[in-house]
Design brief:
The complex is a heterodimer of chains A (108) and B (122).
Chain A (H helix, E strand, L loop, with lengths): L3 E4 L2 E4 L5 E7 L8 E6 L6 E5 L3 E2 L7 E6 L2 E6 L9 E6 L6 E2 L3 E5 L1
Parallel strand pairs in A: 2-11
Antiparallel strand pairs in A: 1-3, 3-8, 4-5, 4-9, 5-6, 7-8, 9-10, 9-11
Chain B lengths: L2 E4 L3 E2 L6 E8 L6 E8 L6 E6 L6 E3 L7 E6 L4 E6 L8 E10 L7 E4 L3 E4 L3
Parallel strand pairs in B: 2-11
Antiparallel strand pairs in B: 1-3, 3-8, 4-5, 4-9, 5-6, 7-8, 9-10, 9-11
Classes of the chains: A mainly beta (108), B mainly beta (122).
């Protein structure tokens, strides 16, 4: 089973700042099949990025993903008020498909 | 509009079973995998498994192998997740999610149901 470790656990930033979220895998993610999700309280997760760097439909271009192998990054170039939420990475290159434990992005 | 609509909240006694439904609309149900993910209160996301609605093939996380069953009814575009021998630590929101056009490369979960709260009092 691939274990995904996200860092930091909590990130405190202000609107307009740049956010960098990390996801490290315990072994290489096949075909870089890694996704990022955003979750707000009381709602299901929303797909932001898949295949490491492809934005899902309707996702603003301030969200970008990068990485390969075992190290992946989600970058939000300029934070908007609606971006403060919890973010999860997920690998789907092998079974079981595992999620990271999440990074909470909070307002500073 | 593509939607997954789940059944309502459930409260179950320890040892009982729960069956959650997930009705698809707005797309061809048999063309996409349906996955199930759960989230305990205040916790992260836990993947449980998937079903291929076309072939009825399934893949479950090993920890649930002996008490998890995923099924589907293609005539009503609905997937089901049944978890038996419930314990208090099964208390969670259960989500269904669509992912990956069958026959194509795997993809992220692009459509999610609204979630079903299952409570198992201790």
């Amino acid at each position: 089973e691939i274990v995904l470790t996200q860092s930091p656990g909590t990130l405190s930033l202000s609107p307009g700042e740049r956010a960098t979220l990390s996801c490290r895998a315990s072994q290489g993610v096949n075909n870089n099949y890694l996704a990022w999700y955003q979750q707000k309280p009381g709602l299901p997760p929303r797909l932001l990025i898949y295949r490491t760097s492809t934005r899902a439909s309707g996702i603003p271009d301030r969200f970008s993903g990068s990485g390969s192998g075992t190290d992946f990054t989600l970058t939000i170039s300029r934070l908007e008020p609606e971006d403060f939420a919890v973010y999860y990475c997920q690998q789907y290159g092998s079974s079981p498909r595992t999620f990271g434990q999440g990074t909470k992005l909070e307002t500073k | 509009q593509v939607h997954l609509v789940q059944s309502g909240a459930e409260v179950k006694k320890p040892g009982a079973s729960v069956k959650v439904s997930c009705k698809a609309s707005g797309y061809s149900f048999i063309d996409y995998y349906v996955h199930w993910v759960r989230q305990a209160p205040g916790q992260g996301l836990e993947w449980m498994g998937w079903i291929n609605p076309s072939s009825d093939d399934t893949d479950y996380v090993q920890k649930f192998q002996d008490r998890l069953t995923m099924t589907r009814d293609t005539s009503i575009s609905t997937a089901y997740m049944e978890l038996s021998s419930l314990r208090s630590d099964d208390t969670a929101i259960y989500y269904c999610a669509r992912a990956g056009n069958i026959g194509s490369v795997p993809d992220g979960f692009d459509i999610w149901g609204q979630g079903t709260m299952v409570t198992v009092p201790s």
